[in-house]
Amino acid sequence: MTDLRVGIGSLKLKNPVMTASGTAGYGAELAEFFDPSLLGALVMKGISLEPWQGNPPPRITETPCGMINSIGLQNVGLEMFLREKLPFARQWDVPVIANILGTSADEYVRLAAELDGAGVEGIELNVSCPNIKKGGISFGRDMAVFARLVGAVRKTVKSAALIVKLTPDAPVAEFARAAEESGADAVSLINSIPAMAIDVNTRRPLVKNVIGGLSGPAVKPIAVRMVYQASRAVRVPVIGMGGITEGRDAVEFMLAGAHAVAVGTAIFSDPMAPLKILDGIRAYMENHGIKRVSAITGSVRT
Amino acid sequence: MKSASSDTSSILSRAAVKSNIKLNASNFILGLVPERALPGPRPGQFFMFGIDSRKDPLLRRPFCYFRKEDGAIQILYRVVGRVTTLMTGLRAGETVEILGPLGNGYPDFLGSKAEEAGNGKGKTPLVIAGGVGLASVYPLLAGLDGRAHLFYGERTGASLLLVDELRRLSGQVTLATEDGSAGFKGTAAEAAKVFLKGRDKKDFTLYACGPNGMLKAASALGVDGYIASEEKMACGVGVCLGCAVKTAGGFKRACKDGPVFKIGEALFD
Ligand SMILES: Cc1cc2nc3c(=O)[nH]c(=O)nc-3n(C[C@H](O)[C@H](O)[C@H](O)COP(=O)(O)OP(=O)(O)OC[C@H]3O[C@@H](n4cnc5c(N)ncnc54)[C@H](O)[C@@H]3O)c2cc1C
Ligand SMILES: Cc1cc2nc3c(=O)[nH]c(=O)nc-3n(C[C@H](O)[C@H](O)[C@H](O)COP(=O)(O)O)c2cc1C
Ligand code: FES
Questions:
Q1: Shared domain check, B60 and B172
Q2: With an 8 Å Cβ cutoff, are B50 and A74 in contact?
């Protein structure tokens, strides 16, 4: 028997595979394909205090082995999330991780307080959002702002596991360490990487917003490197993601130091991807005589 | 041990290629026989189509349900890029993956719901197709019992597809080409506008599919009805929010809330 259980702070997962925020909605659409209870955790689309409209279309374009999206964090807002989306997700036997985003530290704190009170099992801080007070530079790239933000949210969150999702365009080890020192229960990475593509015939950017986020297999080697560096810098668990498409990709992240993994873009190519990846991890463990999945974490031979 | 992923949903299937017929240099009809019976499909619905790969090409591509023939589901596709070029190389017997039928489709325009769908007796269906938007409205024509007036536009006359068949399926066909090499000189929506001059717009119900510019023009004709969006999609199942269509109530998803929208609901800049 393979033991797939992993712990992320107070979070006990039955297996290490979760969805990546923004790639599984709030669970309902995915449930048309499989029972979300089979997942380690369900990470919800990012939530802000008020609903966000998002960016005008076109919002997506495929690039070699990847895609650029400029969804612009469109979401239904906290109230609707608490009234409809969260109760709906409660029908499944799966921990729910809310992903939050704001334009000021105060917004993050209020969101975290409400969600913690509502009983979500995890709160993931997306710090890649523009900080209005600092002229739009993201929270995740300004060390002082970042540490204060994590610290303030930490004070608010009593029961949920606090996960800080690091920005890919900042020095990873330093920010992972700062997240840990400010009280994070775990760090997750990578978020999509700022990117751009142009149609040479029309000379227009392929997403209307000009710049979007690159995700999918194209980012995987960068993500594995960052997970490796983050896991060496901190003692708290690391959740790895970025281009995971099959079981061996997930194993690669775990070898690099991830305790759990999230599947994002692969869901777009195949809604069954998270379960196939879980099957792949299990097959790897059987082939290599590994009994506990947590034994893989960090076991890369360097 | 039973694998967790073996319980696949009823709309995910591998499919065998039955035929891949070339209509002209850049347009083909692909016939697919799914390994498991799929529900429907209805006019206006679509499939996410993937050639066996997870990395490159990465995403599946959306194609309308075109028609059923000899037990195969057919899609009409135009070669415009990476995946559609790869599709031309598919041979009978090869396996591909399809997900669908997806989306709402056109309203049930026959039977008890006909009045509600704005298709009561006495209304003439105006069907406007821009380019390969033809694939979306094609299955409507058959269902409309030859009552439809089809306006079908392409850039140039040589690109017009299936013209004899379209004439058989429709009450009337107006062809339009942007270069004037065949039929009306201009777009299909412009041809419809000329036709509507002096006529009572309440006598018609509109069904349109094509590029956004054409949908905008069709929406401005003043006739009630439906447009089908072809906004770019990543997932096709409602989870990515990539396929945004602007409406008065904010952005909606073409794949899940559409692709068919009531005229006036979808707004085009
Ligand atoms: C609901 C829906 C139904 C569709 N039905 C059909 C159909 O029945 N037959 C058919 O031939 N096509 C249809 N399309 C369009 C088809 O999906 C695209 O042409 C296809 O994805 C192009 O893939 P590619 O890899 O060949 O092109 P890519 O290499 O991805 O792109 C090539 C070029 O095509 C453009 N393009 C890509 N996707 C779209 C799109 N959705 N709309 C407009 N331009 C696009 C790109 O911007 C680029 O300029 C439909 C689209 C949608 C959303
Ligand atoms: C369409 C889309 C929407 C996303 N939305 C969010 C979001 O709301 N919050 C967030 O923290 N990350 C978001 N992400 C980033 C993913 O959660 C993930 O970090 C990234 O895509 C890398 O993983 P992948 O390559 O498996 O997709 C989004 C990614 C995509 C592609
Ligand atoms: S294509 Fe993903 S939501 Fe419509």
A1: no
A2: no
Domain count, chain B: 2
* Residue B40 and residue B123 in one domain: no
A30 and B233: CB-CB below 8 Å? no
Clarify whether A65 is annotated catalytic: no
Q: Which amino acid is at A60?
A: I
In our burial notation (b when 16+ CB lie closer than 10 A, e otherwise), range A158-190 reads eebbbbbbbbbebebeebbbbbbebbbbbbbbb
Q: What is the CATH number for A231?
A: 3.20.20.70
> Is residue B145 located within the same domain as residue B52?
no
Q: Which tens digit of pLDDT belongs to each residue from B109-165?
A: 655 555 555 555 678 899 999 999 999 999 999 888 788 999 999 999 999 999 999
Q: Which of B11, B54, B59 sits opposite A67 (nearest CB)?
A: B59
Distance of residue B194 Cα from the nearest chain A Cα, in angstroms:
30
Classify A171 in phi/psi space as left (phi over 0), alpha (psi -120 to 50) or beta: beta
Please check whether residue A40 is in contact with residue A260, taking contact to mean a CB–CB distance below 8 angstroms: yes
Q: Which of A43, A96, A129, A263 is catalytic?
A: A129
* Cα A155 from Cα A184, distance rounded (Å): 11
Q: Do B29 and B124 fall within a single domain?
A: no
Determine the distance separating the centroid of ligand 2 and the alpha carbon of A98, expressed in angstroms. 13
Over the stretch A236-281, which tens digit does the pLDDT of each residue have?
Answer: 999 999 999 999 999 999 999 999 999 999 999 999 999 999 999 9
Range of the domain at B176: 112-262
The first and second tokens of residue A15, run together, are 């297996």
Residues B152 and B213 in one domain: yes
User: Are A272 and B242 inside 8 Å of each other by CB?
Assistant: no
Ligand nearest to C-alpha B63: 1
Same domain membership, residue B122 and residue B70: no
Q: How many domains, in total, are found in chain A?
A: 1
Q: By C-alpha distance, which of A143, A164, A50 is closest to A103? A: A50
Cα–Cα separations (whole angstroms), residue A272 to A34, A158, A232, A264, A289: 7, 34, 32, 12, 26
- Asked whether residue B190 falls in the same domain as residue B245, the answer is yes
Contacts of B242 (CB under 8 A, 6+ apart): A59, A60, A69, A71, B232, B233, B234, B235
> Under a CB-based contact definition with an 8 Å cutoff, are residues A18 and A72 in contact?
no
Q: Which two three-digit tokens encode residue A117?
A: 């009170």
Please tell me the pTM assigned to this model. Answer: 0.95
Asked if residue A154 belongs to a domain, the reply is yes
Coil, strand, or helix at residue B141?
Answer: helix
- Residue B261 with chain A: CB contacts under 8 Å: none
Ligand nearest to the CA of B210: 1
Whether this model's ipTM surpasses 0.90 comes out as yes
- Tokens 């974490």 belong to A297
A62 with B59: Cβ contact below 8 A: yes
Contacts of B17 (CB under 8 A, 6+ apart): B30, B31, B32, B90, B91, B92, B93, B94, B95, B96
Which residue type is seen at A185?
Answer: D
| Identity of the residue numbered A234 | V
A171/B contact by beta carbon, under 8 A: no
Please give the backbone phi and psi of residue A262, each rounded to the nearest 5 degrees, phi first: -125, 145
- Identify whether B267 is part of a domain: no
